[in-house]
Design brief:
single chain; 206 residues; two-stranded antiparallel ribbon; elongated
Length: 206
């Protein structure tokens, strides 16, 4: 469903800056927020939503976003206080952005295209996630590397025979982070990347 979300200039620009850091569009950045924070902020109150809507009423821009049924289903049983889906998601997104702190860039960043070896299971999960949400792999790959590092499991390390090549687009910051973690831990860069992806995907499906 295509929804014209209403965003204050400040929220619009902040989403743009967050997208710049990850090397993705504003619409992909919006979708990523709606997926990541569907549960964390589900108890936002009527007063908090109205506060965000009051700011939107003063001045706003509209951003057309194609939101899949899978994402909308995450908000299906939400108490919306008689707001339309459009107004609720606009206010909810505004609340989320104001209550989270992401790395950002003022301008678009360069993405290096390369290949890495991931397990077939992870490649399948990435493909399914993209199909269900419309969020590109680039968003998950680069966002995963902003998370705190978790050591890989023995099962992941032993999956050498089950690995396939996967094209990736990483920003300079992400590539640097992988190399730093690889140097610190002694694990190959593809293992570091896959572990962070697994951690992110597990958190999303909770």
């Amino acid at each position: 469903m295509k929804i014209g979300l209403l965003l204050t200039r400040e929220i619009y620009q902040e989403l743009e800056r967050r997208g710049h850091y990850l090397g993705i569009s504003k619409t992909s950045t919006v979708l990523l927020h709606l997926v990541l924070y569907a549960t964390q902020f589900k108890e936002v109150t009527k007063e908090e939503l109205e506060h965000e809507l009051d700011k939107i009423e003063v001045s706003h821009q509209q951003l057309q976003v194609e939101i899949s049924d899978v994402i909308l289903l995450k908000y299906d049983n939400r108490k919306m206080y008689l707001l339309t889906v459009r107004k609720y998601l606009s206010a909810y997104l505004s609340y989320v952005v104001n209550h989270t702190n992401w790395k950002s860039e003022e301008k678009s960043v360069f993405k290096a295209v390369s290949t890495t070896c991931l397990s077939q299971e992870t490649v399948n999960q990435l493909a399914l996630f993209k199909e269900q949400t419309g969020i590109p792999n680039t968003a998950l790959l680069n966002y995963a590397l902003t998370l705190d590092y978790s050591a890989p499991s023995a099962k992941l390390i032993s999956k050498e025979s089950d690995r396939v090549q996967q094209g990736v687009q990483l920003t300079k910051s992400s590539s640097k982070r992988i190399q730093e973690l690889s140097d610190e831990t002694g694990y190959p860069s593809n293992i570091v990347l896959e572990q962070q992806l697994i951690k992110l995907l597990e958190n999303i499906v909770k």
